[in-house]
Amino acid sequence: MDARLRRVNKEIADCKNDKSSNIDIDLVDNSPFHLIGSFDGPEGTPYEGGHFEVDIVIPDSYPFQPVKMKFITKIYHPNVSSASGAICLDILKDAWSPVLTLKSTLISLQSLLCSPEPRDPQDAEVAKHYMTSKSSFEETARYWTEIYAGGPGKAGKGKASGPRDEIAMAGLDSAHVQQFQSLGFEKSKVIDVLRRMNYRGANVANINDDRVVEEMLKP
Amino acid sequence: MSSADEYSDDDAGYYDEDDDEMLVDDDGSASEMELDPMNDFHEGSSRRKIYEIDYESLSQADVERQMKSEVEYITSIFGVTVDVASLLLRHFDWNKEKLIEKYMDNATTVSVAAGITPPEKAPKRPAASGGRLHSSSELSRESLIGPRRSSRRVASAATKSSKSKLLERATPPRQDEPFVCPICFDDTQTEFMSLVCDHKYCKGCWGAYIESKVKTEAESWISCMAEDCDVVATDTFVQQVLGEDKGTWGRFQELLVRHYVSHRPELKYCPYPSCTYTVSCSISRASLATQVPIVTCGNGATHKFCFGCNVDSDHRPVICPVAKMWLQKCHDDSETANWIKSNTKECSKCQSTIEKNGGCNHMTCKKCKYEFCWVCMGPWSEHGTSWYNCNRYDEKASKDARDAQSRSRASLERYLHYYNRWANHEQSKKLSVELYAKTEKKMEEMQITSELSWIEVQFMKKAVDEVIKCRTTLMWTYAMAYYLEFGNEKELFEDNQRDLERAVEDLSELIESPLDPEVIKTLRQKVTDRTVYVTKRNEIVLEDTARGFLEGRWTWNSPVAGLD
Ligand SMILES: [Zn+2]
Ligand SMILES: [Zn+2]
Ligand SMILES: [Zn+2]
Ligand SMILES: [Zn+2]
Ligand SMILES: [Zn+2]
Ligand SMILES: [Zn+2]
């Protein structure tokens, strides 16, 4: 039997038999080389209560070259692209070792959710948000968990049951957004510019309002 | 296009009007011998021309011999094995002096850093300090394949719950079970190997791992497969693992040579694809202000490149810093100048579209028969005479410019003049692939229609080779002229440039003209003569420019980075 196939089959079987780790690996189609891994957001983090899915592609030279993983579930985290789900983690690159497994790699991803590394970011805007105001960042990450990963959130209070709150999605203050909207700019434009400029927390004092307006006037 | 015959009447005047540097034989004919392509390829310095430099081409085996003697030197002074010496040198990027200094200072630290010994095996430390599993009987599948503390991030960050889970899962070793490779789980494997760290894996996995490192990552620094283990595979280990896989072993050796060469200032690896030759040349940085170190690797006469910069072709006569400046300028202004590169233009008389498909610049409109120059779009009639001025830019316009707007327009026009001619020669060179095919066909035709043998029709191919070579020179003369300060020296430079350009265009036209079986013998003589003439004109440009650099005759109209 093909060595790669034997190894992957064993890994999938081991993972199925191991109930304690709470890591799941499922086949996407009939190929064992394209999988979906999933795990729960760690307790005590903004991802708690969410369930996260990861796309797994086993390259031809596995396990001698690293497995390819990216988040399917949208997640607000400095080391994960908020747009594509691409992950910045050393063991998925040059720190990979053939003794690492799909399960151990997924556990590493889970641990990454506990301790972001904003100094080595995948998503620079999210990383800036994290560095500026951790509490505001966590609020946004929690909101994303609620919207995309089935987290508990404030749904009970009726807030998220309506349309998605774009301001909360961008981690902004609704008072700030309204302030610029009142100058006649469109809401989506205001959100986009303020998000890019990291108009949050203590950083607000560093940004001249004229610069914000200038930015909004750009086509 | 004109036929070959049109040229016979102006031949005399054409050659005679030239200066005292006339190098063609008195009777105007040249022997085939002078066209020997090896004529311009010299190994020894005795026949070295002023625009050539001293260098040596080395095969992979030659470089390996050099590496071997470095390794032997280290083995002799430290009393270590060849494998260890090799790892030490590679770790220090072949800097012997630094290696010796650091090794004398603290051999243990150096050995760990160089992947020779694992930290816990290094002497002067308690034997049981490491947390690693040592003997094979202790190895358990679960403990190796299970989740492990990994990487800086996870190691520092694992939450309480996941960390404790990891520890729980490490089941005690089972002594009596047969060893199974923890990577492939193939229980039919019988041959296991490990580096000094004792991390055992089957030979098949080692082979697949090394192959993937070498072939996919082009990496020769191959660390142990165990996580966070920095012990590195020695050459002997790699060779043992690869066994019959000669392809990967060969590539591994090539990577070692490349690594060595990249850390030697006097060596440069041939940039041509899949070539494994190296050139050795001891030109100093400072000499790059006056010399252009164009070299050819011993693998083939077409593997020509510059030792001083990253240009993968001959950029004589212009020196590296100026060539670099010009290429940067062309890159920055590529959009402005893009239209020039198009292969079609409009006839300035009747506006019908004309396509260029050869290297020759003498164009004839199919519709109105207007003969013009592809480069300046001016009438061709002026180009055949001593009034030929196509190469020169009239600096008057930029001098007369008073306001900023006309100044900037004049500066763009000036740039476009030089760029246009540069790009045109480059394009003509590219069209030469086509020309080669056409010439080949023509040569076959000649053999059929005349009594000339295959050897005797080679003059056509030699002519094409020469045209391509000279167009390369011409290209770079425009880069040079763009930066040359206006004055007498530039005038003289442009005289030489003009003479070479005219000679090249004439020869180019001659070899692209339709073949008339009646006059093949005459054509042969004519092509041969003009090829010799073109070679000499090229020589004059290269020699005079090189001499000018040595004499400090050239002054630039803008500061050149890298020159004092
Ligand atoms: Zn194996
Ligand atoms: Zn090891
Ligand atoms: Zn070569
Ligand atoms: Zn150069
Ligand atoms: Zn016309
Ligand atoms: Zn012209």
Question: What does it look like?
Answer:
The complex is a heterodimer of chains A (219) and B (564). By secondary structure, chain A is of the alpha+beta class. Chain A is 38% helix and 10% strand. Chain A has eight helices and four strands. In chain A, a hairpin with a 6-residue loop joins strand 1 (24-27) and strand 2 (34-40). Chain B folds into three domains: 2-58 and 267-306, no CATH class; 63-243, no CATH class; 320-551, Four Helix Bundle (Hemerythrin (Met), subunit A) (Up-down Bundle), CATH 1.20.120. Chain B has helices at residues 11-16, 60-78, 82-91, 96-105, 107-113, 141-145, 151-157, 160-169, 203-217, 235-242, 246-262, 320-332, 334-337, 396-400, 404-430, 432-449, 459-483, 488-512, 520-551; strands spanning 56-58, 192-193, 201-202, 267-269, 278-280, 294-296, 304-306, 344-346, 353-355, 362-364, 371-373. Chain B is elongated and about 95 Å long. The interface between A and B is large, with 33 and 39 residues. The structure holds zinc ion (6 copies).
Topology:
The complex is a heterodimer of chains A (219) and B (564).
Chain A: H1 3-17, E1 24-27, E2 34-40, E3 51-57, E4 68-71, H2 102-114, H3 124-132, H4 134-148, H5 166-169, H6 174-181, H7 187-196, H8 209-217
Antiparallel strand pairs in A: 1-2, 2-3, 3-4
Helix pairs in contact in A: 3-4, 6-7
Chain B: H1 11-16, E1 56-58, H2 60-78, H3 82-91, H4 96-105, H5 107-113, H6 141-145, H7 151-157, H8 160-169, E2 192-193, E3 201-202, H9 203-217, H10 235-242, H11 246-262, E4 267-269, E5 278-280, E6 294-296, E7 304-306, H12 320-332, H13 334-337, E8 344-346, E9 353-355, E10 362-364, E11 371-373, H14 396-400, H15 404-430, H16 432-449, H17 459-483, H18 488-512, H19 520-551
Antiparallel strand pairs in B: 1-5, 2-3, 4-5, 6-7, 8-9, 10-11
Helix pairs in contact in B: 2-3, 2-11, 4-5, 9-11, 15-17, 16-17, 17-18, 17-19, 18-19
The structure holds zinc ion (6 copies).
One zinc ion (ZN) is lined by residues 373, 375-376, 378, 383, 390 of chain B.
Keywords (chain A): ATP-binding, Nucleotide-binding, Transferase, Ubl conjugation pathway
Pfam families (chain A): UBA_3, UQ_con
Domain UBC core (chain A): 3-150
